[in-house]
Write a structure and sequence with these properties.
Blueprint: E1 2-4, E2 7-9, E3 31-34, E4 40-45, E5 51-59, H1 69-78, H2 88-97, E6 101-106, E7 110-118, H3 122-134, H4 140-157, H5 161-174, H6 194-203, E8 209-215, H7 219-231, E9 254-258, E10 264-273, H8 281-293, H9 298-306, E11 313-319, E12 324-333, H10 337-353, H11 358-374, H12 379-390, H13 397-407, H14 411-421, E13 428-433
Parallel strand pairs: 4-8, 9-13
Antiparallel strand pairs: 1-2, 3-4, 5-7, 5-8, 6-7, 10-12, 10-13, 11-12
Helix pairs in contact: 1-6, 3-7, 8-14, 9-10, 10-14
C-alpha cells in the first residue's frame, strides 16, 4: 500500500497488466542513386540528432581457382594503417580530434568501412576516407606488426575449447572454401603484403561499392559525397566475383576432440539450411526461437533452468551470400557432456512429435514481433534492415511477408517446419573437451 499526495493506492499483484499484440509495421525505404562510375548510393534521411553514419560496403572478390579468405580478412584491418599521404597515427589523430569513429569490418562475403560523425565534421573526414579507399599504402612495418599481433591473438584463442569447436564445425559443414577454411598460426608466417595490396586495387572500386548514408542528412553532405566519391573516384573496371564456393555435404558425425584436464566441454552442432529467400525462412526462425533462440526457449528451460548443466545455451540461423546454416552452441561440465547431447536430441524430437501449446505459440509470436519492432528504434536500424534485404537480393516487402508469417504461425505449421528442417541425426556434432 502506498500513499501518494494523501491518496491511498493499493498495488494489485494478482492481475497481470494488459498487453496488446504488436501490429504490422513498415521499414523505411531509402532514396536510391546510381552514378556513372558505378557507385550505388542509398540515403536514409531521418532522426533529430545531428549525427550521420556513412558506410562503404564492398563485395569480396574471389577468383575461380581459390577462395583465399585469409587475404580478404587482412584487407579491411590494414585500411587504417596508412596511406601515401597519412600515417596510421595521423589518421587516428584526425578521427579522434573530431570525436568520430571509423570502423573497418570483414566477413566472408563483404568488407566495409563505416564512419560515424557529426555533420559539421564531414568536410574534414570524408577526404580522409577517400584517401583510405584510393591511396592506402599497406606500410611494411605496420603489416609486420599486424601479422605478429594477429598470430599472438590466434595462438591464445586456440587454447579455448569454444573456438576449437567453432572452427571444426565450420570445416565440417562448409568444406575447404571461404566459409569453412580456418587460419593456422603458420599461415601468417610468410604472408606477403603484396597479396592484400593487389586485392585492394581490384576490390576497392566504385562499381563494387554500395554506399549507405543514414542520419540527419544535409544537402551539403550529398554534394560532398558526389564531389569526392563520384567525380573524384573513377572506376577502374575491375573484375567481379568469379567464384561460387563448392560446399561440403554434411555427414551427421559426432566429432570428439579430447582435451586433457578439461573441466568443460564446448558443444557446437548444426547443419546448412535454407536462406532468407526461401518461403519457409520466417517459419524456421520461429521454430528456432522456440527451441533455443531466446532466454525463455526450451533448451534454456531444460538444460540451464531444470538440469543446471550450463549457464547458457542457444541456437540461431545465419544467412550468407551462398548458403545459410543452423547452429546450436553451449559449454557444459565434462561430467554432463553426454547427458546434454541427449537432452538436446530429446528437445528437438519433442518439437517434431508433439504439438506446441497455444500459450507458448502466442508467447513466441509476441516476442518475435516485439523484437523486430525493438530493432527499428532509429534511422540507423532501418538502414540495417534494408541492407539485410538488399544483400539477400529481396525487396523490403520481405518484412511485410515476415510479419504475416509470424502472426499466422499455428500448431501445424510449427510441426511441419520442425520435421522438415530439424534433423538431429543429420547435424554435425562437435565436442571439444571430454565425452
Amino acid at each position: 500500500m502506498m500513499n501518494l499526495n494523501n491518496n491511498t493506492y493499493t498495488l494489485d499483484r494478482q492481475t497481470a497488466p494488459a498487453y496488446f499484440p504488436v501490429q504490422p509495421f513498415g521499414v523505411i525505404a531509402p532514396e536510391e542513386r546510381q552514378y556513372a562510375n558505378g557507385l550505388k548510393v542509398f540515403v536514409f534521411d531521418g532522426g533529430d540528432q545531428d549525427l550521420v553514419r556513412v558506410e562503404w560496403v564492398f563485395e569480396n572478390l574471389y577468383d575461380k581457382t581459390r577462395d583465399d579468405a585469409l587475404v580478404h580478412s587482412c584487407l579491411a584491418p590494414m585500411l587504417l594503417e596508412g596511406t601515401w599521404q597519412w600515417s596510421n597515427a595521423e589518421i587516428a589523430d584526425q578521427v579522434d580530434f573530431h570525436g568520430a569513429y571509423l570502423v573497418p569490418e570483414f566477413n566472408s562475403d563483404r568488407s566495409s568501412l563505416t564512419l560515424f560523425t557529426l555533420n559539421k565534421h564531414l568536410p574534414q573526414l570524408l577526404p580522409l576516407v577517400r584517401s583510405l579507399l584510393t591511396d592506402a599504402s599497406f606500410p611494411e612495418k605496420e603489416w609486420q606488426t599486424y601479422l605478429r599481433n594477429r598470430k599472438q591473438q590466434l595462438e591464445i584463442s586456440l587454447r579455448k575449447n569454444d573456438v576449437l569447436a567453432r572452427r571444426e564445425f565450420n570445416r565440417r559443414i562448409f568444406g575447404a572454401n571461404r566459409y569453412g577454411r580456418v587460419t593456422e598460426p603458420s599461415d601468417l608466417d610468410h604472408l606477403s603484403r603484396e597479396l592484400p595490396m593487389s586485392l585492394y586495387k581490384m576490390q576497392m572500386v566504385p562499381s563494387n561499392c554500395s554506399l549507405f548514408i543514414s542520419g540527419k542528412i544535409q544537402p551539403s553532405t550529398l554534394s560532398e559525397i558526389e564531389r569526392l566519391f563520384v567525380e573524384g573516384w573513377p572506376d577502374s573496371g575491375g573484375p567481379k566475383d568469379q567464384s561460387t564456393p563448392l560446399l561440403a555435404d554434411g555427414t551427421g558425425e559426432t566429432i570428439i576432440q579430447n582435451i586433457p584436464g578439461a573441466l568443460q566441454s564446448a558443444i557446437r552442432m548444426g547443419n546448412r539450411t535454407i536462406q532468407r529467400t526461401h518461403k519457409d525462412f520466417p517459419g524456421l526462425q520461429f521454430v528456432n526461437t522456440v527451441l533455443g533462440g531466446y532466454f525463455g526457449s526450451r533448451l534454456m528451460a531444460n538444460i540451464r533452468e531444470d538440469k543446471g548443466y550450463t549457464y547458457g545455451i542457444g541456437s540461431g540461423i545465419a544467412d550468407m551470400k551462398h548458403t545459410a546454416y543452423f547452429t546450436l552452441a553451449t559449454e557444459v561440465g565434462v561430467d554432463v557432456t553426454g547427458a546434454t547431447l541427449s537432452e538436446i536430441e530429446k528437445e528437438i524430437n519433442l518439437l517434431k512429435s508433439q504439438p506446441i501449446a497455444e500459450g507458448e505459440l502466442e508467447l513466441v509470436r509476441n516476442y518475435m514481433m516485439g523484437s523486430l519492432l525493438g530493432s527499428l528504434e532509429n534511422i540507423f536500424s532501418h538502414a540495417d534492415k534494408f541492407k539485410q534485404a538488399y544483400f539477400s537480393g529481396i525487396s523490403l516487402d520481405y518484412f511485410d511477408y515476415y510479419q504475416q508469417q509470424i502472426l499466422n504461425m499455428d500448431v501445424e505449421t510449427v510441426q511441419r517446419i520442425a520435421n522438415t528442417y530439424l534433423d538431429f541425426d543429420r547435424m554435425e556434432k562437435i565436442v571439444v573437451g571430454k565425452l
